[in-house]
Amino acid sequence: MIHGIDISHYQGDIDWSKLQNATIEGQPLGFIMIKATEGASEMDENFNDNFYQAREYGFIRGAYHFWSNKSSARDQAYYFLKQVHLEEGDLPPVLDVEYKPEERSVEDFQRDILTWLHIVEDRYHVKPIIYTYYKFKTKYLGTHVFDDYPYWIAHYYVDKVEYEGDWKFWQHTDAGRLPGIKGYVDFNLYNGSFYDLKQLCIKE
Q1: Of the residues 6, 90, 96, 112, which is catalytic?
Q2: pLDDT digits (tens, 9 = 90+) for 136-160
């Protein structure tokens, strides 16, 4: 499997020259997911630098939007598209969704999520990746309309993902350590070969 990490301003200023040669279980890093936006107005303060440096240092990079229940799906989608400019060779855009508003029905919530996904897919012509934890996926995103989307499943401290559907990425710990990063960082695995990972990326 291909190893990767995800980062945000919580990792502070990264020493990319050290990170470039970092390994997980003896394997080099294959990809880096980077927090970009949250809601309809919040930009991760380190995104632009992290996104630029990831490509400069030869990593396959991706950008994710953190879903907020305080803004409309449409506003959040257009804010993400305004702030993030993915290029050929980047991973598809990612929607990180972890909370359902209590007052929304499951059906309305699913419609909101699909609105974001459709707007962003229309821009990049690829299915966005959905990040969530496995119980949330089963409980709130279990309908067939979400089956075509690649999944990035968070499930910590287990030997394998208990989610039984197809998945592309597994976030398996939030307590990783690597040279070049102060403090902890999330570790991820890609479920496939490096060729498969490249094929998932945005084409021209």
Answers
A1: 6
A2: 999 999 999 999 999 999 999 888 8
Has residue 30 got a pLDDT over 90? Answer: yes
Residues 6+ apart with CB under 8 A from 70: 39
Q: Is 6 a catalytic residue?
A: yes
> Annotated catalytic, 98?
yes
b/e string for 63-97 if b means 16 or more Cβ within 10 A? bbbbbbeebebeebbbbbbebbebeeebbbbbbbb
The answer to whether the CB of 154 falls within 8 A of the CB of 130 is no
Q: Which of the residues 45, 87, 98, 196 is marked catalytic?
A: 98
Nearest to 62 by CA among 87, 98, 99: 87
Does the pTM surpass 0.90? The reply is yes
SS (H, E, C) the chain: CEEEEEECHHHCCCCHHHHCCCEECCEEEEEEEEEEEECCCEECCCHHHHHHHHHHCCCEEEEEEECCCCCCHHHHHHHHHHHCCCCCCCCCCEEECCCCCCCCCHHHHHHHHHHHHHHHHHHHCCCCEEEEEHHHHHHHCCCHHHCCCCEEEECCCCCCCCCCCCCCEEEEEEEECCCCCCCCEEEEEECCCHHHHHHHCCCC
